[in-house]
Structure formats: C-alpha cells, structure tokens
Amino acid sequence: MEWSFLFFFNSALLGVGLAMDAFSVSMANGLHDPQMSRRRAVQIAGTFAIFQAVMPMTGWVCVHTIVELFSSFEKFIPWIALILLGYIGGKMLIEGIKGEEAEEAAELSAGALFMQGVATSIDALSVGFTISEYGWFMALVCSLIVAIVTFFICEAGLAIGKKFGTKLSGKASVLGGVILIGIGLEIFISGMMG
C-alpha cells in the first residue's frame, strides 16, 4: 500500500467502523451523567481515541513479532468484551434500579473508563492483521486517523447521551446499563460467530 487518497479514506472508514462500540458506550456515559463537564467529555472521548490507536498498532506489532501467540489469544476477545461491558453495564443498571443516581454514581471512575476503553477497542487488535502489509509509519498514521475519527464520534455520542439523559433523568442509568450490556452481548455474539 502506498500513500494515496484511498489510504486516508480507508483509514477513516476503518475508524468509523471501529468507533461504533465506543460511540454507543459514550452515549451511555452521557445518559448516565447529563451534567458532565466539557473537560470530562474530552477526557472520555480522548481515552477511547487513545485505545483505538494503541490496539491496532499493538496488533501490527504482534503480526510482525509474536503472531502465533496473538492468534491463540484472539478467541478470548469476545469473552473479555462481554465480561467488562457486562460488569460496568450491570453496575449502572443496578444503580439506576435502586435509584442511586446521586453524584457519586454519576461520576465515571478512572477504572471504569479504562475498562470501557479496553472493552470497546480490544477487537481493534485484529486490525493489526488488516494493516500488517503497511510499513510501521503508515500503520502509525492509520492508527492516528482511527483515533481522530473515534474522538469526534465519541464526542457526538456523549452529546446525544447528555441531551437524552437530561430528558430521561430518572431512568438514564437503567438505559445506559442496558445499552452497555447489549454492546457486550453484540461483540460476544459476532465474535463467536465470526
């Protein structure tokens, strides 16, 4: 592959495809915390963007170094996403049902955000196979394009979630939890069938 419009276009499309899970989780985060500050929204979108850049590069490195180990790990990806998103979503769901939508419940912890970042980007590891014919610099540029696209898509998801979170105030955590569990199940089912 050489530098061309097609390279940039394909990288952007890859970013859109990979960002869909992060978009949905961002919407759930916005629903959960409709009063989220602008700074916090940038932190969340930035976290997802970083993970979406790091995972394809990690996959690329694995393809060029320890490909046998990576291919055996690949079967665990759907399970990891299901467990992480199921846990976070279940916690949000229980908080929403119990009515614990107080300030401490609304604030997404650093650990929970980290788990969301891993869960929504772990499937991007396999993108390392897709971009394995790229040189390291092209793979890096592709990963950065994916990150930029993810950032803006997550910003949109947070904004949509915040808008509806204000309207749904009482049941936002329930809806957010259901969405996260649904995403975890979708990643799991498509990973097991694929």
Structure description:
It is found in: Cell membrane. Probably functions as a manganese efflux pump. It comes from Faecalibacterium longum. The chain crosses the membrane at residues 6-27, 48-70, 76-94, 137-160, 172-193. Keywords: Cell membrane, Ion transport, Manganese, Membrane, Transmembrane, Transmembrane helix, Transport. This protein has 194 residues and is mainly α. It has helices at 5-32, 38-63, 67-73, 77-98, 103-106, 110-121, 127-130, 136-167, 172-193. Residues 101-106 have low confidence and may be disordered. The chain is built from nine helices and no strands. It is globular.
Keywords:
194 residues; mainly alpha; 9 helices; globular; Mntp/YtaF; transmembrane helix; ion transport; cell membrane
Radius of gyration: 17 Å
Largest sheet: none
- Number of distinct helices: 9
Q: How much helix, percentage-wise, in residues?
A: over 70%
The counted number of beta strands is 0
Organism: Faecalibacterium longum
Subcellular location: Cell membrane
Keywords: Cell membrane, Ion transport, Manganese, Membrane, Transmembrane, Transmembrane helix, Transport
Main location: membrane
